Amino acid sequence: MLNNSVDSPSEPSPSALALLPLGVFLLLFIGVGGYLTMQGVDFAFYQLPAPVAALPAVILALILSKDKLNKALEHFLRGVGHNDIMAMCMIYLLAGAFAAVAKATGGVDATVNLGLSLLPASFILPGIFIISAFISTAMGTSMGTIAAVAPVALGIAQVAGIDTSLMAGVVLSGAMFGDNLSIISDTTIAATRSQGCHMKDKFRENLFIALPAAAAAIAIFMMSNSVTDAPAAESFEWIKVLPYITILVLAVSGLNVFVVLGIGILLAGTIGMVSAADYTLGNYVKDIYAGFGNMQEIFLLSMLIGGIGELMRRQGGLAWLTGLVGRVIGAFSKDHNTGSNLKASELGIAGLVALTNVCTANNTVAIIVSGGVARKLAEENGVTARRSASLLDIFSCVIQGLLPYGAQALLLGSVFALSPLSVVSHSYYCLLLAASGIIAVFLKRRRQ
Question: Is the entire prediction scored with pTM above 0.85?
């Protein structure tokens, strides 16, 4: 959501007012949706589409800009076209196309029946969490994992009678596990580079915090599993499962997510045309386009939020956040007690990246924005580089997995036809990871 463009001659002056557009968007999107939910309106969060709710925030951000309108619009468009935003939007389109083609050619039904035949009734939810976590760790992207796993998970939930919002939360939990822990994740790369430590050291530091949270999440998912007798799996054609098996294998091998989804789309369409006489090239092309259309809302919202985030940065909103965290840390560190300074600094690093993530809705960008301040805090108060890198990655992923306007929740909401609030309300792993991270801060033991 952020464009660190080279034409900015100096850091913007801190301004809390610059964060107001985000508040307007949240008030409209969550406030209206929540109110209509209490009124019993069906699909309450779809009554005011999120991109429409973002428009007043865009207008306000432009009004607050100290630049002339043309210059402010230029900055807004740079945020819209930021590499991270464009990458997410391309994933949306490819994921939508793959889901549409796979469903039309029978791939979803076949894969659902395969999953039902392999997963015991008491282990459906934990099994989906572990699969999602494994794939996300292997391929280093939560978005790619969700695109690959969500359609199958939805089909299993519908056939097995599992609450779809709970299943969406399971997929989100597993995806965020790998996004945080993977050595090839962009969040890991950003965190280790900004703090000056090796990836393997950050991985080890992370592991001690993430594994207890994952174990607790698995236990919760097992207790939440309401299926006592798994529905009988119907017969299926293995060839129709091949697209999903292929993209999972390619994802685990570390292949680029765009290539993985592209191959999946080609393979699903080819199998459909070979196995079904009435599935033609024309049907294939129409399904791809229909899949693109299914992602329209999330596509537009991501671009608009990217533009708002860039304007907020240029107007000093993020600078104000970093200053606030610095003052809070200073207030708790005045006694010059080494232990107190260490804990205050670690909590400050966690709070800084969390608040930044709330404003940018992008965990990688949040790490990049707050990395310099975090490194300074760590060096001044004896926090190891691997520790600060781990905290940056953990708490950015925690917030990203709980944001109803984050890319992951929006994509799952689109696939499962749920409000994003329903999705994040079952993101148990992220809540447990936050608790595990805070507990780790207060533990006296420090590995040197």
Answer: no
Nearest partner of 79 among 359, 397, 403, 370, judged by Cα:
359
Q: Write the burial class of residue 276 (CB in 10 Å: 0-12 exposed, 13-18 middle, 19+ buried).
A: middle
Q: What is d(CA 346, CA 355) in angstroms, rounded to the nearest whole number?
A: 14
Q: CA Rg, the chain, in Å? A: 22
Instruction: Give the alpha-carbon dihedral of 246, 249, 255, 257, to 10 degrees.
Output: 60
In sequence order, what DSSP letters do the residues of 10-37 get, joined into one string? SPPPP-GGGGHHHHHHHIIIIIHHHHHH
> Cβ(333)–Cβ(28) under 8 Å?
no
> Is residue 18 a contact partner of residue 47, using CB atoms and an 8 Å limit?
no
Cβ-proximal residues to 63 (8 Å cutoff; 6+ apart), any chain: none
Number of residues written out for the chain: 448
DSSP secondary structure letters along 374-425: HHHHHHHHT--HHHHHHHHHHHHHHHHTT-TTSHHHHHHHHHHT--HHHHHT
Report the distance separating Cα 143 and Cα 134, nearest Å: 14
Residues 316 and 159: their CA atoms lie apart, in Å, by 50
Cα separation, 159 vs 177, whole angstroms: 26
User: What whole-number distance in Å separates Cα of residue 338 and Cα of residue 336?
Assistant: 6
Q: First and final CA of the chain: distance in angstroms? A: 35
User: Would you say residue 435 has pLDDT above 60?
Assistant: yes
Alpha helices in 140-198 (DSSP H): 142-160, 164-181, 186-195
- Residues 339-393 have pLDDT tens digits of 567 888 888 889 888 987 887 777 877 787 677 778 877 887 788 899 999 999 9
Give every CB contact of residue 231 below 8 A, 6+ residues apart in sequence: 116, 159, 160, 161
The answer to whether residues 160 and 229 touch, using CB atoms and an 8 Å cutoff, is no
Within 10 angstroms of residue 391's Cβ, the number of other Cβ atoms is 31
> How many CA atoms lie within 13 Å of 381's alpha carbon, on the beta-carbon side?
30
